[in-house]
Amino acid sequence: MTVAGFFYNRRCMEPIELKVDVSDALAAPGPLHIAASVFLPDPAKLVSPPLVIFAFPGGGYSKGYFDLNPPGHRGYSQAQHHVERGIIVVAADHLGVGTSTIPDLTALTVETVAAANDAAIRKISAQLAEGSLAAGFPALPGLVRIAIGQSMGGCITIVMQGRMGTCDAIATLGFSAIHTVLPQRTEAARRQAIAANRFFRNDDVRNLRARGGANVKVDFVYPFHWEDVPQDILDADMKGGYPARKTSPPWGSLTMPAFARLMLAPGYVAQEAAAIEVPVLIAAGERDVIPDPHAEPCAFKSSRDVSVYVVPNMAHMHNFASTRRLLWDRIAQWSLMVAREKSGGSSSRQV
Length: 351
Description:
Helices cover about 30% and strands about 15% of the residues. It has nine helices and eight strands. An eight-stranded mixed β-sheet has the order 1-2-4-3-5-6-7-8, sandwiched between helices. The two termini are about 25 Å apart. Residues about 1-10 have low confidence and may be disordered.
């Protein structure tokens, strides 16, 4: 058996779990660690040039969102979907989320969390490039890095890329760089939800409750899940409460940074979005938190390559939708296009 075959049969289908120390990159009390799951393809099936997707979850969710395995169901793991096509996937929890370090949630800032993600991406990428992440897996010096973020993860990814230029491209999935708005069943309910969340990026998160809006009832099922999501999956996702979860499914998180609520402010990431120069993929479900997906490219003024993809029969939590593979395939195809153009050549393998 070849080394590649040995590696694939023993390790590919199970992720490598990492705790990445990001303390040295932050002006914050430590130690601080990012939890990451690394999904490695069979080396013989790697796309060329080699490609890694770093995936960051939304508020109330953890890195498990990208490797969903609901009991009694198959085909919900985005990570495995990409890995089977030769793409490396790294799913990571933000600081304050899942199994990453949980510091004072009211003290975390979007800039700090973005810097932590940047540090984790750079450290993991260096290990992949030099071949030190896993025994038997080859060094990948020409590795192309793409970050994708769902909802809150999309917001933080925009801040990270705009401030630090971390990756070769980014995809924002279900987050508006103009104004993120939760759709509701009626226009009156939608307007009420907007009125209850009139914030600014620099607002003190400790005073949000005192400013009102706590009594406004927001429907999260309607914006989050399309009507054909299996009832048992919907129940598992929502039964512990949202956004403040009292119990959590394997793909959820009991905690999230307090600044997450501020992300509903208009223009929250305007400055960082305008500074991004790399290719950007904007993806949304047919019913999502982006009021006008086709207006979004205007926010990315410095990028010469901005794509928009709206997926039918899909709500905000994309990976639960029956049409999820349409999105996964678009991300894979777009990522390979970006990698090919960056390398100045053509790919030897299509996905």
